[in-house]
Design brief:
Structural class: alpha+beta
Distance between the termini: 22 Å
Helix content: 40-55%
Number of helices: 14
Shape: elongated
C-alpha cells in the first residue's frame, strides 16, 4: 500500500516527475560514463603487455616510448641500430628479446615488423600467450599475420593478399604495390593493440623498402624475386626492443647499463613504472571530470528536491486526508523519501541503459581512434557501489522536502 501510494502520487504529477527523471538520468549517465571509462581505460592499458621486464628505444620520454612501442600511439624520435640490438640480445642476463619495427600501415592499422620470438614470448593480461584463431605465424618474407580486429573489419581471410602503405596515415598514396603480402594467420582476440596490428617479419620490412621510391617499381621483377628468396635480409635499424631477463634481480643493472650505453643514446623503461607515471599525469584530468560529473548529479538532485518541495503545497488536500485516516506526520516524511528513491532508481536504470547503448555504438570508434577497449558490462561490484552512493546522496538531499512534508502534516 505504501509503495502504491507513492507511485500513484508520482503518476499524478507525471509532467514534472518526467522532467526530474530526465535531468537525473542525464546526470547519472555522465557520472557512470566517467567512472566506467576511467576504470576500463586503466584495465585496457594495464593488460596490454605483461611479462616484459624492460622496453628499450631511442632516448625520449618514458611515456612516449611506452605509447608507441606497446600501444602503437605516436612516433619514435629515432631508431636503434641493428648492431646495438645484437649487443643487447647477446647479454648473458637477457633471456629473450622481441625486436619491433614500426612505420608502415594498412588502411589506418599499424604494421609491426618483428621476429618469430614475438609469438612465443609476447604475453598480455595475466601472462596470457598469443593464440591463433586460424592459420600460423609468418615463415616466408611476404607473409602477414593479422590481429583479430583487422581481419574482422577489413574482411580478410587466410590466403588473401594485401598491400602495405608507407607511413601511418589512415589514407596513404605511398603504397608498396609491387610487393603484395599474403595472409597466413589471424590472432585470436586479445582486447589489446595486438588486435589492431598487422605483423610481418623484419626481413619483410627491409624488403619492401629496398630501392623503394614513392610506389615506383625501381627494382623490377628480378629484385622482387630475389627479395622473396632471400630470407637473410638484415635490418639496418629497428624501433624498439622488448626484453625478458633471466633474473628479476638484474633488472636495474641492465636498466642502468642501457641508459648509459656509449655507442648511441638509448632509454630503457620498466613498463609498470612508466604506466604509473602516465596515470599520475592523468589524475588531474580524472579528478576534474569526476568533480564535474558530481556537480551535475548534485544539481539534478536539487532539482528533484525543488520539485518535491513545491509539490507539498499542491498536496494539501492529500495531506489532510492522510491525517484524517490516522496517518502520523512521519508517514508523509517516509512517503516523500520513497518517491525520491523511486525517481533515483528509475533514473539509474535509464542512465545505465543509455550508457550501455552508447558504449555499444561507439566502442569501435574508441578502439580505432584511441586504442581503448571498453567493456559494456556495467553490473560490476564497483558500479554497485556507485549506484548505492548515488541513491544514498539523493535520499540525503530529499530530507529537505521530506521535513517540509512532515511539518505540513503536523500543522494539519
Amino acid at each position: 500500500m505504501f509503495s502504491k501510494l507513492a507511485l500513484q502520487s508520482l503518476l499524478d504529477r507525471k509532467g514534472s516527475v518526467a522532467l526530474a527523471v530526465l535531468a537525473m538520468s542525464v546526470s547519472i549517465f555522465i557520472f557512470l560514463g566517467v567512472e566506467h571509462i576511467r576504470h576500463q581505460a586503466k584495465e585496457s592499458f594495464s593488460r596490454s603487455v605483461s611479462g616484459v621486464d624492460l622496453i628499450v628505444g631511442a632516448r625520449t620520454s618514458r611515456i612516449n616510448l611506452l605509447m608507441y612501442s606497446v600501444f602503437r600511439i605516436g612516433s619514435p624520435t629515432n631508431n636503434i641500430h641493428w648492431d646495438t640490438y645484437q649487443s643487447i640480445a647477446d647479454n648473458s642476463h637477457v633471456k629473450w628479446t622481441i625486436p619491433i619495427s614500426l612505420g608502415d600501415s594498412h588502411k589506418g592499422y599499424r604494421v609491426l615488423g618483428t621476429s618469430e620470438d614475438y609469438f612465443e614470448y609476447f604475453s598480455y593480461g595475466r601472462q596470457q600467450s598469443l593464440v591463433f584463431s586460424s592459420g600460423r605465424k609468418f615463415e616466408n618474407i611476404f607473409d602477414v599475420v593479422l590481429g583479430s580486429e583487422v581481419a574482422e573489419k577489413l574482411g580478410y581471410q587466410i590466403g588473401d593478399e594485401l598491400i602495405l602503405a608507407h607511413g601511418i596515415a589512415a589514407t596513404s598514396f605511398s603504397l608498396h604495390k609491387n610487393r603484395p603480402f599474403s595472409v597466413v594467420g589471424i590472432i585470436a582476440a586479445t582486447g589489446t593493440p595486438v588486435d589492431q596490428t598487422l605483423h610481418v617479419s623484419l626481413q619483410a620490412i627491409e624488403a619492401i623498402h629496398s630501392n623503394w621510391q614513392q610506389d615506383t617499381k625501381t627494382s623490377g621483377s628480378d629484385t622482387l624475386k630475389a627479395a622473396r628468396e632471400d630470407i637473410t635480409l638484415q635490418p639496418k635499424s629497428i624501433t624498439a626492443i622488448m626484453l625478458g631477463l633471466k633474473s628479476k634481480v638484474t633488472t636495474f643493472r641492465i636498466h642502468r647499463a642501457i641508459n648509459n650505453y656509449a655507442d648511441e643514446p638509448l632509454m630503457a623503461i620498466l613498463p609498470g613504472v612508466a604506466l604509473s607515471e602516465l596515470w599520475q599525469m592523468m589524475s588531474l584530468l580524472e579528478n576534474i571530470l569526476l568533480l564535474v560529473s558530481t556537480l551535475v548529479f548534485i544539481a539534478a538532485c536539487l532539482g528533484v528536491c525543488a520539485m518535491l518541495l513545491s509539490s507539498i503545497r499542491e498536496r494539501n488536500g492529500e495531506i489532510q486526508l492522510l491525517r484524517v485516516i490516522g496517518a502520523p506526520p512521519y508517514f508523509l516524511f517516509f512517503l516523500i523519501q520513497l518517491e525520491a528513491l523511486l525517481i533515483t532508481v528509475l533514473s539509474c536504470i535509464i542512465g545505465g541503459v543509455f550508457l550501455a547503448l552508447c558504449l555499444l555504438l561507439f566502442r569501435d570508434y574508441l578502439v580505432s581512434d584511441y586504442g581503448l577497449y571498453i567493456e559494456i558490462k556495467l553490473l560490476t561490484q564497483s558500479s554497485f557501489y556507485v549506484f548505492l552512493a548515488l541513491i544514498s546522496a539523493s535520499l540525503l538531499i530529499a530530507v529537505i522536502p521530506s521535513m517540509g512534508g512532515y511539518r505540513q502534516a503536523k500543522v494539519n
